[in-house]
Structures are given as C-alpha cells and as structure tokens.
Write a structure and sequence with these properties.
seven-stranded mixed β-sheet; 12% strand; Spore Coat Polysaccharide Biosynthesis Protein SpsA, Chain A; 2 domains; alpha/beta
C-alpha cells in the first residue's frame, strides 16, 4: 500500500463526506493505493455515524473512536499504530488541508528520500489575533530550540516514512513537535513544502492561545526528556552538587569568620540559614536523581534503539 492517511476528527460531521470524496478522487486519478484512518477524538456530534456510513461506500476507510476527548496527539499516536502504508500522511478533517497536495507530497518524499516533509501554510485564512499571531511566536520559539528551520511546526499536513512513525511516541500536545522528536530519534532528512491553506467551510476552529501555551510547556518537556530522559542523574546530580557545594562553602566561610575573626555566632547570621537550605536542597536533588535512575534502569524501554538496517545469515 502506498499511503495511509491519518485524520483526527473532533465534531466535523459536515466536512467528512466532502473530504473523503475529494481524497478518493485525487488518489484514484494518480493511481495511489491508500487507506484512510479516521480517529474520532470523542466527538459529540454525529461524526462517528458519518464515518460508519462512509465505510459502506469506501472500503479503504478504517476508524477508531475514543470514549472521550484525549487530544490530537493521542489520536495521531493511535493512527500511527495501525497505519500500514509505505508513507503516512496526516491531515485535518476540517477541509483546510487540501487533498490535492497528496500526490506531490508523495513524489517529493520518494524522490528526495525524505523521512518527513512538513507543510507550510504560507498564506493563511485564520483569525490573525487568536491564531496567526500566536502561531508566529510559537514557530519562532520552536525553530530556536529545535534547530529545525521549519516555518510551520503546527501544520497538520505532513508526510512520513512508515518507519518514522513506528519509531516514535506522541502524547500530550507533542504532535506539534513530531519533526523534532523524529530528528532526535535519528531521522534527520526533514523537508518542507508550501501547501494551500483553505478557509474554514464548516464548524469553528478549536485552536487559540491556550493551545500554544500548552505547546510551550510541552517544548520544555521534550527538551528535558530528549537530553536527560535516559540519564536523569546528570541533571539532578549536577544541580545537587552545585547547590550542596555552594551551601557547604558558605557555611565554611561563616565558620571561619566566627572562630578566626570573632564575628557573630552562626545562628545569628541570616546567611547561615540560606547556606543550610542550599545544602539540604542539594541532598534532595541527589536523592531525586538516584530515584529517577532506578526508575529508568527498571523501565522496559531502557535499551530501546532504532535500527536502520541489519544483515542476517
């Protein structure tokens, strides 16, 4: 199978028939074998009934329905889990991503041997205050910290090699950072393509300032996990060492002042309590590091690696 198209759905009953018909027309015209994987993320409208009805007409449709809303990352992760195509395309269900982009994305991925190609909605039709402006701030920050020169991290239209999405896990709000997660996993052939962004035809947008605030928090989480996820003692131990050493040296200096220069007693110096707390915090950080190391060393995936190739026989 050439492609799996993973589409998270949240209250998009009006757009689904048009979207499926459009996808079918495009891929059939270009002789692309495909499957459509709808992940209903706890819709409260008739989206799931519409998906089941569409299944009777299009055999390529598969679907999963969450019992409640878990978020786009969870929906994508489940879609990635069951995808079988050589390449996996993600797109939104609101018709703002154009299926006409599919053939060119597939050709570009194959010919350029890309691991990921991320869409760039260069011209947008969203509300400038609630989505466009926060998006620019978010993308600039993500570029700075990730080292990826992508203009639109949050574009739902992307294409991946199957091996990429089978080698990563997406949770929280981390669907925005899939290219960064993949890069840290070793998939460095990441490209970008300008794609068409269409005005919303049905329903209302589900994005705003709160989503981007959550996105920044998840960026910090990813940066920490990528660097210290397998070696937490390096983080907690280093902080603990500095904190304890600073407190110990400060206490030592105060003691020297007391016994050599006959200054006030230690208990009468406010800075003594600061130094004491610093030492206690240092010890606690060390303990946190040891506990984290024990957890990591007993984790099932402590030695999980991604193989590019192998030779047998």
């Amino acid at each position: 199978m050439d492609i799996s198209i993973v589409i998270p759905v949240l209250n998009e009953e009006d757009s689904l028939p048009e979207l499926v018909a459009w996808i079918h027309q495009v891929v059939t015209q270009h002789h692309i074998s495909y499957e459509i994987l709808f992940i209903d993320d706890g819709s409260t409208d008739n989206s799931w009934d519409v998906i089941k009805t569409l299944k009777t007409k299009y055999s390529q449709i598969k679907g999963l329905k969450f019992i409640r809303n878990y978020g786009k990352s969870a929906a994508l992760n489940e879609g990635f889990r069951i995808a079988q195509g050589d390449y996996v395309i993600t797109m939104d269900a609101d018709l703002q991503d154009s299926p006409d982009e599919i053939p060119e994305l597939l050709t570009m991925a194959k010919e350029g041997k890309f691991d990921i190609i991320s869409g760039w909605k260069k011209k947008r039709y969203d509300n400038k205050l609630t989505k466009n402006f926060p998006s620019k701030i978010f993308n600039a920050t993500a570029r700075k910290f990730s080292g990826l020169k992508l203009h639109d991290f949050n574009c739902g239209l992307k294409i991946y090699r199957l091996k990429v999405i089978k080698s990563i896990e997406v949770f929280g709000e981390m669907h925005r950072y899939i290219p960064f997660i993949a890069k840290r996993a070793g998939f460095t052939k990441i490209g970008e393509k300008v794609v068409t962004h269409r005005p919303r035809k049905y329903g209302q947008t589900k994005y705003g300032w709160d989503r981007f605030i959550n996105g920044f928090v998840d960026l910090i989480t990813i940066l920490f996990l990528m660097k210290f996820g397998k070696k937490p003692m390096q983080f907690f131990g280093t902080l603990g060492a500095f904190s304890f050493l600073a407190g110990f040296l400060s206490t030592l200096w105060l003691a020297i002042e007391k016994f050599i220069f006959d200054h006030y007693g230690l208990a009468q110096r406010p800075f003594f309590y600061v130094a004491l707390i610093s030492m206690i915090i240092g010890i606690q950080l060390f303990i946190c590091g040891f506990i984290a190391e024990l957890i990591v060393r007993n984790a099932n995936d402590r030695n999980s690696y991604i193989l590019e190739d192998s030779i047998h026989g």
